[in-house]
Amino acid sequence: MSEWAGSRESCWAEVDLDAIKGNVAAAARVSGTSVMAVVKADAYGHGAVPVARAALEGGATWLGVARAGEALELRAAGLGAPVLLLGYTPPDAVGELLAADVSLTVWSPAHLDAVAAASRATARGAGVHVKIDTGMNRVGVDPDAAPELVRRVLAAESVELQGIFTHFACADEADPASGVTAVQQARFAGVLAALEPSFARLDAAGVARPLIHASNSAATLAVPSAAHDLVRFGIAMYGLSPGAAVPLPASIRPALAWKTVIARIAEVPAGEGISYGHTYHPSARQRIGTLPVGYADGWRRTSGQQVLVGGRRVPVVGRVCMDQCMIDLDSVPQARVGDEVVLIGAQGGEQLTADDVAARWGTIGYEVVCGIAARVPRYPV
């Protein structure tokens, strides 16, 4: 026997905005300094605009993004807080971003020249942060060349040096205050020391010094000496750990739950195949539930997955389809069509975290939440 159950959505995500606010406040307490809420990648899959608003209400003073469109989305939503585009800016987008009062990252004279030219052409001042590559070896100016680039920024007409920053590669590992992170800190400190005469001249002219920032979530929680003027709070703002060696304080809570419903329940005879390829065959008559969620929603085509039904973990069986997957309901005989199913989150006394899902997928929690498809609606709770 099979039945159909309707609901508002086939699957959806719930975002606890109060958790976002509380997590930002926790970052400010832990670091003792200001917080940049990193809302790139649609706020790590949580919804950029509502998360940004919640983060600002929680005390964040800056917002961080990675793409021009992400910055402009925040401005279109009426958010006027300082926004920093943390990575590469296409030259054709510079003028529009300056018109929207978005701060840009520069790490080469060519970047600076493009920003200065756009500033002159648009008659808009340009705020920039200089990125120092202290060991991530991704983007940034070499430490030896950094003082000259900063001096060029300070001399550029209509360009304001708002910040100087770096990014840690290994702050999520055990003992981050030693090893690679300590080397990066020392290199960054060397750059800042070389720039002290330039900073002193700013002091004498009554001009504010640039913000100094280095800490990502891991360093915010584990390397207090790296806090400087601002911490960039990313993954931990969403209640997810930066790594196994960086436990979250009890005050930081997960902000996202991912849910669906049971759309069909059927008794499948022993030996029958389940889903594409018939990779799974029940050894005895089995109660099989169908869930309207699949890899097009971000629920990977990976074996060994679990979901929560009736407060119990139950296995996903057979191959995950584009829009659906099947589960074994023998351990929850009370389950009915229309019952809520949890992919990420809590139900009863049980919980499945994004990190639990990531472990089964062989990846990290970041990728799990960022990979929830746009067609999955997000609802504030």
Overall description:
With 381 residues, the chain is α/β, with parallel strands linked by helices. The chain has 2 domains: 17-238, Alanine racemase (TIM Barrel); 256-380, Lyase, Ornithine Decarboxylase, Chain A, domain 1. Helices cover 31% and strands 23% of the residues. The protein contains 11 helices and 18 strands. The protein has helices at residues 17-31, 40-45, 48-57, 68-76, 94-99, 109-122, 146-155, 179-205, 217-222, 354-361, 365-370; strands at 11-15, 34-38, 62-65, 83-85, 103-106, 126-131, 159-165, 211-215, 230-233, 256-261, 264-268, 286-291, 306-309, 312-317, 325-328, 340-347, 350-352, 378-380. The strands form 2 sheets. Strands 1, 10, 11, 12, 13, 14, 15, 16, 17 and 18 form a 10-stranded mixed beta sheet that branches. An 8-stranded parallel beta barrel has the order 2-3-4-5-6-7-8-9, surrounded by 5 helices. Helix 1 packs across helix 3 (48-57). It is elongated and about 80 Å long. The model is unreliable at 1-7 (pLDDT under 50).
Compact description:
31% of the residues lie in helices and 23% in strands.
Protein structure class: alpha/beta
Query: What share of residues are in beta strands?
Result: 15-25%
Reported by name, the CATH topology of the largest domain is: TIM Barrel
Describe the sheet with the most strands: 10 strands, mixed
Relevant CATH superfamily of the largest domain: Alanine racemase
Distance between the termini: 35 Å
- The H/E string reads EHEHHEHEHEHEHEHEHEEEEEEEEEHHE
User: How many alpha or pi helices?
Assistant: 11
Kindly report the average pLDDT value.
95
Unreliable runs: 1-7
Measured on Cα atoms, how large is the radius of gyration?
24 Å
Domain tally: 2
The CATH C-level name of the largest domain is Alpha Beta
Can you give the helix content as a percent range? 25-40%
Instruction: Tally the beta strands.
Output: 18
Shape: elongated
What's the architecture of the largest domain in CATH terms? Alpha-Beta Barrel
